[in-house]
Amino acid sequence: MSAVRENNPVLTAIQAAHPVLADDLPPLQAVDVAELAAMDFKPRQPLLSPWLCSQDLAMVFAPRGVGKTHFGLAVAFAVATGGPFARWQAPAARKVLYLDGELPGAVIQQRLWMHCPDVDPAPGYLRIFTPDLVTEGRTLPDLSTYEGQAVIDAMIETDTALVVVDNLSAWARSGRENEAESWHPIADWLLSLRRRGIAVLLVHHAGKGGQQRGTSKREDLLDVVIGLSRPKDYDPQQGAVFVVEFSKARNLVGDQAESIELELVVADDRATWRCRTVEASTFERVVDLANEGLRPNDIALELDINKSSVSRHLNKARANGLIKADKAARS
């Protein structure tokens, strides 16, 4: 029995994950600034440039059905293959662990096939766990508990660069989302991964107010927070179209943090992404509505934007000869 315990990585991880008494640990110590400056910390490496680096703790959130999992899988494939996603680029292939907490096995297979780029990830560079892999008598690990964290830790290889948790509600089921204290065990686990040089992308639901669901204390710890939302004039026939907005991004400056619109285009069961800035998307919508005969006030109401923005776009469109009959009244 002792030999079984010694060779059981999950049991070993669980034992290591349990908090120990403070008396059993060496005391925490501050160091002199010169000593800190001389320390050899592991350098941060870009994973999906410019917004995701090693050790980053990130979150993408959206209402149900907008495209969170599509976004998460696209990030995972880009990092695992050293490829592009939208206007972002992974400089090199790095290992990814994708934790799916909701989809049936057949559905995640279909999604993976859809998003797989022309070049497959090298063996072991994109590893997946999904609920249909839970063996009889076991339950999906709960990241709100030390035991659940230990089970997942046993899946994370030493050279893993990114862990994607899709989604937070499925993987952290204990406690209450709105209580800050319920977040503490998960925050401690995330920080332990950061110390190991691992980045984490949390996929999460949006609440009724449009922000990430639950306690706002989550965002204090995070380096990157991305919100996905439908365009103002969204038509369900458009499929997966959403605006990507960085509400927090410590790595981004200037135009890098500009909101963009992504459209998922599926042909022959394979996915490609169309990307444009929100500014360009809004300009095209203003032109289309003007050519349909809508007045500036009506365009502003339709797109939920300021009338001054409509006027600016119309002036640009007229200067480029894009208003066919100039039906939009000047006002």
Q: Largest sheet, described in full?
A: 9 strands, mixed
Instruction: Fill in the CATH topology of the largest domain.
Output: Rossmann fold
What form results from the Cα inertia axes?
Answer: globular
Radius of gyration: 23 Å
Question: Which class of secondary structure composition applies to the elements?
Answer: alpha/beta
Number of strands: 13
Mean pLDDT: 87
N- to C-terminal distance: 84 Å
How much of the sequence lies in strands comes to 15-25%
Number of domains: 2
Name of the CATH first level of the largest domain: Alpha Beta
Biggest sheet strand order reads 7-6-8-9-3-10-11-12-13
Share of helical residues? 25-40%
Low-confidence blocks of residues: none
Instruction: List the helices and strands in order.
Output: HHHEEEHEEEHEHEHHEHEEEEHHH
Strand and helix layout:
Layout: H1 2-6, H2 9-17, H3 33-38, E1 46-48, E2 52-53, E3 57-62, H4 68-81, E4 84-85, E5 88-89, E6 95-100, H5 105-115, E7 126-129, H6 146-153, E8 160-166, H7 168-171, H8 180-195, E9 199-205, H9 217-221, E10 224-229, E11 241-249, E12 260-267, E13 270-277, H10 278-291, H11 296-303, H12 307-319
Parallel strand pairs: 3-9, 3-10, 6-7, 6-8, 8-9
Antiparallel strand pairs: 1-2, 4-5, 10-11, 11-12, 12-13
